[in-house]
Amino acid sequence: xxxxxxxxxxxxxxxxxxxxxxxxxxxxxxxxxxxxxxxxxxxxxxxxxxxxxxxxxxxxxxxxxxxxxxxxxxxxxxxxxxxxxxxxxxxxxxxxxxxxxxxxxxxxxxxxxxxxxxxxxxxxxxxxxxxxxxxxxxxxxxxxxxxxxxxxxxxxxxxxxxxxxxxx
Length: 168
Known about the structure:
Layout: H1 2-9, E1 13-14, E2 20-21, E3 32-36, E4 39-43, H2 48-58, E5 61-68, E6 81-88, H3 94-115, H4 117-125, H5 138-153, H6 157-166
């Protein structure tokens, strides 16, 4: 609900792409393959291709859909089937992408905190961590810091000044 409300309030259109597809995405090495009425088909790993085809007609789009990974694993943390959220925004800059991601995380976290106070309190009282909504600017601060550290480590000081000035 929190994710859907976030996207609805920002005029995104929800798309329901297929989960049985005939094309391979992401290299195809970990796909569940099956026979579909005599033709080869796969369970999808991503809805990106379908969302991108909707952009010209619908603009900003998103989906909350099932995905499948046929990766062999012997851990309990590995999931072969999971629900994922994907969004596509046409013609944006990298900065706009970061702003959209940060807005999604901060706004959705706030919505969850507002909707599930009793459940979150129960989780919080049994955890050593505090539950806080991330503050705006955390993605760009983190990336800027990481970029500057990488530049410094690789002795690329001539790039450092352009990174600093482009942030002002």
